[in-house]
Write a structure and sequence with these properties.
Blueprint lengths: L11 H11 L6 E2 L16 H13 L12 H12 L4 H4 L3 E6 L1 H15 L5 E6 L4 H8 L3 E6 L1 E2 L4 E2 L1 H8 L7 E5 L12 H14 L2 E6 L13 H9 L3 E6 L12 E6 L3 H18 L6 H11 L1 H31 L7 H4 L4 E3 L4 H11 L1 E2 L5 E3 L8 H13 L1
Parallel strand pairs: 1-12, 3-4, 3-7, 7-8, 8-9
Antiparallel strand pairs: 2-10, 5-6, 9-10, 11-13
Helix pairs in contact: 2-11, 2-12, 5-6, 5-10, 8-9, 11-12, 12-15, 14-15
The structure holds 4'-deoxy-4'-aminopyridoxal-5'-phosphate.
Keywords: Aminotransferase, Pyridoxal phosphate, Transferase
Organism: Succinivibrio dextrinosolvens DSM 3072
Protein name: Aromatic-amino-acid transaminase
Length: about 400
Amino acid sequence: FFDRIDAAPADPILGLNEAFKKDTRANKTNLGVGVYQNNEGKTVILDCVKEAEKILLEKEETKSYLPITGLPEFGRLARELIFGKDSEFVDGGKAVSCHCPGGTGALRIGADFIHQQNIASTIWISDPTWANHYQIATSAGLKFERYPYYDRANHNLAFDRMIETLSQAKEGDVVLLHACCHNPTGIDPTHEQWEIIAKFLAEKKLLPFIDFAYQGFGHGIEEDAFGVRTIAKYNPEFLIASSFSKNFGLYSERSGVLTVVSADVETAVKVMSQVKIAVRTAISNPPAHGEKIVTTVLSDPTLRAKWEDELKGMRERISKMRVLLSHKLKDAGAGDFDFITEQNGMFSFSGLDKDQIEALKRDFGIYAVASGRICVAGINSNNIDSIVEAITAVVKK
Ligand code: PMP
């Protein structure tokens, strides 16, 4: 049966981790992985999460199945984060939410739902993007097209080309957007650009599907929701895939939410019934632990305040490293890297080319993705000087 199967190409990012593990150099540095690390280079459990786990350990009485879409309160709290406490979408019934295993699960269940219900056959995805987007779309049976996103020469958003390309989309096509902290470029639309995008999608009758994997990692919980809330102002129907992997540090608990907004409550009820079938046939019902942690933290004022504080700490550490990196590179004579301070979230397109990235790995044990993406959350006060030295050496070569 299986002898005619070809080996799949290695996942570029996971393959990098394998190579990093095998590297025996003492001062090796991994700027490839997409997880937050503190100034000691550790991915620790947030204090608010530990405290919620203690509460759960004492109070939890059953490991019986959750409802197919997760507990309703979890979905409600997720909608509060997305839309803001006073939004009509929190309790009004037009928005329905479903717990999925991570942001990936939410993207996949959303794509399955679109395909199964014949809502669209084509999804437009930014180029570049988190590479899994293309695979998820294809696995769900959708065709994808790419729209330009990155202006290499100016290190910013290729906004005109993006809109020009999306003008070729057919009415009813889906457009996948990153809500904030675009992976891999770190470049987000400005408020004015979001307004234009939101109105453009509404006029062209395109269906927005928003990947919200980094809420709180850019400028703040509310600030990072600007794009989604602007889409909501002009577009009666859209989908959002939220993830709690990064902002709660719950990577392995697989906690995410698919939210679908419909034009009216009656439609939303029908949508939810079909989303349930998509979940039932893919995973039957969701894992509970991550969902219960998030619900516990967000519903307890003290824990919530602690979470906001810890999230702020992560965000501010990354932003400090951005500033430090660009200053130190300038001082070392590597050139102008100020654009790094304008980018948001965990990642940065460094502008380094494939050969320079290869030289960083070969000569200095610094691992980054071939596209030039570096994980700024992997930089700390102990490794920044050797990173600066290495980048300076490869750009001056
Ligand atoms: N979307 C983007 C843009 C991401 O970067 C990631 C994680 N790297 C995800 C979705 C998936 O997140 P999760 O781990 O919650 O599945």
